[in-house]
Design brief:
homodimer; about 350 residues; alpha/beta; Peroxisomal Thiolase, Chain A, domain 1; two-stranded parallel ribbon; 10 helices; 15 strands; about 35% helix
């Protein structure tokens, strides 16, 4: 039997892989939000100087990775794997970035859970000593996602109150097993989620589709580790938005593991000023948790304002085809425990 | 520094994770091919008793996973991770199968390299003792892939001579760290590939797009391990087809590491009778290498007809959007060294 498993879904990482570099590069709207000053780069517009929205997203992705590697005191040639994904069909943002970087590439698809999925996998690979440096990345772009998943941008379709706004942004973290530079944080436990589906079919209410998966992973993690929500300084979900945030609070209350209001938040609520920025239920997209983690949350751990943070990104695993064929929307949530140095 | 790395891209797995179960479930055309009798299940038609092609693909996926787990002497509740992907947008085959199985899910996208990507990752996670049982799976379906990537099936578009035929099939392998049943094979080394793009833009010539990536990974592996092609009883690529197979032979000759004709083959050439079955350059799709590996190649290792097999699946990482925007087709290849018990 493997010795590092705790309970059913949680895995301990005795070598405590370090995150030594992090970076987030975002669009203009994100730069105008409450975290604006913390991003490494804020684009002037959604084109980021490129000819297509897709190339714009790739540019943010590449920039975030290069900055994370450089801030982590390393160079691309020293990094063994790029673990990454994005929301586009065939994850072209990640694949084409990997082509430009030349780093061996492990392509992931976890929808908006990708940042946590990549960190969980990456830190296990370091903990198993199969690599010494790994870069993890995820991105989304409002214009590429909207036209792929919903409507042509030119329609100007009215959005429903439960809808979230896809973040234009990319985040990257450099994981390092034996860092020569100080760590920002350590990954000490990971909890990989199951696919959970309570039958939500409204593609404009992703928060509700993902909240049951978030609850499932949280409950598994607390049971496996014999801990409770109060044992963590901060629990952060990826992009549940207001609807999913409230639903997760309710689900956890019903399971008698209520999340303390002052210690639980969601990246989709942090990234925009919901009153001023017309984003309805909040931010979404795998760039949401990726950019908030790498711009705002990891530095909080580095400064030791918080000591133990459970970062859990959630994903909605449907496609246009599955929705058109009447399938409901399955959700997934992966969690990583991040501790200050 | 990590101790299990050999050279730049290759990783040694000292715990030699075992494959204890394997299964392949395919469509009718594949059942009529030269490997027909070796598959665990051959569907009567492309619907596999389901209402849509997508549900048919999912059914093959689920069946292959369940059979691999059962043949490996285990049960789904004992398996810690499903590492899987497929060719469909948002990998809905894998995600919806994970929903039905309840096994924690790590979603991958490596196009047709997925079977090797999942085996490489899964065996590293076992070697790191982060899990004791992992199931790896990949699939494709001619009808779902054709209508997503190329033309509506009803068009009956004429296919070009370099085109390959997407395999309808799913393959799954159960990896086990401390098996109670005899191993079919052991995964002893893995080599993760870089994204390579020599500028091919013809989506009907995937073999040519992927061959340079195959050469890149092979050359890295031979350099890292100080071995040469003759040191392996069999080198098998995923789905280069005849065009890619010949191109890879040429590229390796040019690099003065020629692949011996009697020890190198390609799953895309094995699965169909190219003369009788009108498949042009051969089979393709991640179900191609997944079903040939799990039906034909792993049992050869189990019977010790061969001792050391390098299994390398290749993927073409383009999307409809990237092709329409004029991008060329990047390729990737991941390799795993499989040894007989």
């Amino acid at each position: 039997m493997a010795s590092k498993r705790i309970g059913l879904q949680t895995i301990e990482l005795p070598l405590r892989p370090a995150i030594t570099g992090c970076a987030a590069c975002v669009g203009r709207k994100e730069g105008e939000g409450p975290l604006g000053e913390y991003f490494d780069f804020v684009a002037k517009d959604e084109m980021v100087g490129q000819e297509t929205f897709e190339l714009a997203e790739k540019q943010l992705y590449l920039d975030a990775i290069r900055k994370a590697i450089s801030k982590g005191g390393s160079r691309p040639e020293e990094v063994q794997f790029l673990l990454g994904g994005d929301l586009l069909n065939q994850i072209i943002t990640a694949s084409f970035s990997a082509r430009d970087l030349g780093i061996p590439f492990i392509g992931l698809y976890g929808a908006c859970s990708t940042m946590a999925e990549s960190l969980a996998l990456g830190s296990m690979l370091l903990d198993g000593e199969h690599a010494s440096q790994i870069v993890c990345a995820a991105s989304s772009h409002f214009c590429t996602a909207e036209r792929q998943y919903r409507y042509p941008l030119e329609f100007g379709t009215q959005r429903s109150p439960t809808a979230q706004w896809t973040v234009t942004g990319a985040g990257a973290s450099l994981l390092n097993l034996s860092p020569a530079v100080p760590a920002l944080a350590h990954v000490t436990q990971v909890c990989l989620g199951r696919v959970v589906d309570l039958g939500i079919t409204d593609a404009n209410n992703m928060g509700a589709a993902m909240a049951p998966a978030a609850a499932d992973t949280l409950l598994a993690f607390f049971a496996d580790t014999h801990t409770q929500p109060e044992d963590y300084d901060l629990i952060v979900t990826g992009d549940l938005g207001q609807v999913g945030h409230d639903l997760l609070m309710q689900l956890m209350r019903e399971q008698r593991q209520p999340l303390p209001g002052d210690r639980y938040t969601d990246c989709g609520l942090l990234i925009y000023d919901r009153k001023a920025q017309d984003v309805h239920a909040g931010g979404s997209g795998c760039g949401c948790s990726a950019s908030v983690l790498n711009a705002w949350l990891l530095p909080m751990l580095q400064r030791r304002e918080i000591r133990r943070m459970l970062f859990m990104a959630t994903g909605a695993l449907m496609s246009l085809t599955s929705s058109q064929q009447g399938e409901s929307i399955p959700g997934i949530a992966h969690a990583v425990l991040l501790e200050s140095p």
